[in-house]
Specification:
Strand content: 15-25%
Helix content: 25-40%
Distance between the termini: 35 Å
Largest sheet: 9 strands, mixed
Order of helices and strands: HEEHEHEHEHHEHEHEEEHEHEEEH
Strand order of the largest sheet: 10-9-8-7-11-6-12-14-13
Number of strands: 14
Length: 366
């Protein structure tokens, strides 16, 4: 039976893992806490960047000899293979730990098997403690392994009546400075930020992370099927972060930097691009998480395709009564076919309300 000390240590490991969001791709975020034989904190660490030491190595180095006879709490099953770093299962064995508790099994066929290796060495291994919390913090990487595509977070900012702009198309700023700062946190945690041609044309967004020290700039992606929205001098081409302009295979993109152009097939069921092809191209580039920022048409296409894994909505205490809605046609003709969401969090951000929700169980199975 899990003790209070076990739960406290694993919850700390999960908090540590979250520190790696945005900087470890294509690797997972992982946290580790080591208690000594008397159950006292001895060391902790998290995976900080791809190619660097894993969480277990940081924690074991901090613990030193106090790891012997102790317990290691890890958010993900210790790896069992040698890549750019050695196998963490072997490092735990050599450190002399007596017990390893991991929250989630490793679904990567190249790295799994660490638990069996530890058991074969006589170490007690337990799995499943705070599994849901550990899955949530590592959702991007787990989705990429299980589904072969990036994890998609759709973010929008709207008035309380669901408008993203007024009737005259003005949209700056519906939400507060505090909410806009929070969006930069979301960008910093994502591998790529994606917008559509309407947003690019109307707002000329820069899409970089600002105000967060040490943030890794995400890949900036504009879905510009006809190659007409992004023109020379656009802020998204400013060179401050990598950029891709996704265009149709037959689009005239001669005005765009050749290295920034990503040619994709058109969608078979609509006017835009083939979204699975877009996600496959991003996944091949190491993108494990996408922040979908707009606009309503592109968001509707993602929802219609069943490609939204989480929704983050910033609602301002403002009424507009007219103007574009946050979500355009999503292929939902009747209330009976509505995409039902489970709200996982509601938070006040300045004067605004941030609501986080995920598709209900029935949709998750698709």
């Amino acid at each position: 039976m899990d003790t209070a000390a076990d739960i406290t240590a694993m919850r700390r490991a999960i908090a540590l893992a979250a520190r790696g969001l945005g900087s470890t791709s294509p690797n997972p975020v992982v946290g580790c806490v080591v208690l000594d034989a008397e159950g006292q904190p001895a060391g902790e660490g998290f995976h900080q960047r791809a190619g660097g030491p894993h969480a277990e190595i940081h924690a074991l180095r901090a613990a030193g000899d106090r790891a012997r006879g102790g317990t290691a709490y890890v958010t993900l099953e210790p790896c069992n293979h040698t890549g750019r770093t050695g196998p963490c299962a072997q490092a735990l064995i050599e450190a002399g730990v007596a017990r390893v508790v991991h929250a989630v099994g490793d679904p990567n066929p190249q790295a799994t098997g660490g638990a069996d290796t530890l058991r074969a060495a006589g170490i007690t291994v337990e799995r499943g403690l705070l599994a849901d919390e550990a899955e949530a913090v590592n959702a991007a990487w787990l989705t990429s392994v299980r589904r072969g595509r990036p994890y998609i977070v759709w973010k929008y900012a709207a008035s309380l009546d669901g408008r993203v702009a007024a009737a005259d198309t003005t949209s700056r700023w519906i939400t507060s400075a505090e909410s806009r700062a929070d969006v930069h946190r979301l960008r910093a945690e994502a591998d790529a930020v994606v917008v559509g041609s309407g947003t690019a044309r109307a707002d000329d967004p820069q899409l970089g992370v600002r105000g967060i020290d040490g943030a890794v700039q995400p890949l900036r992606v504009v879905v510009d099927t006809a190659a007409t929205a992004v023109r020379p001098g656009a802020r998204v081409l400013d060179g401050s972060a990598p950029t891709l302009i996704a265009v149709a295979q037959d689009a005239d993109a001669g005005h765009l930097p050749e290295e920034a152009v990503l040619r994709l097939p058109r969608s078979g069921g609509g006017p835009g691009l083939d979204l699975p092809a877009l996600l496959a191209a991003l996944h091949e580039r190491g993108v494990r998480s996408v922040l979908l920022e707009g606009g309503p048409t592109l968001a509707g296409a993602f929802v219609a395709a069943g490609l939204v894994d989480k929704v983050v909505g910033y609602l301002a205490p403002v009424l507009l009564g007219a103007g574009p809605a946050a979500l355009a046609d999503a292929g939902i003709p009747t209330l009976a076919e509505a995409l039902r969401l489970d709200v996982t969090e509601t938070v006040r951000i300045g004067p605004d309300l941030r609501i986080t929700a995920v598709p209900g169980p029935a949709r998750k199975e698709n």
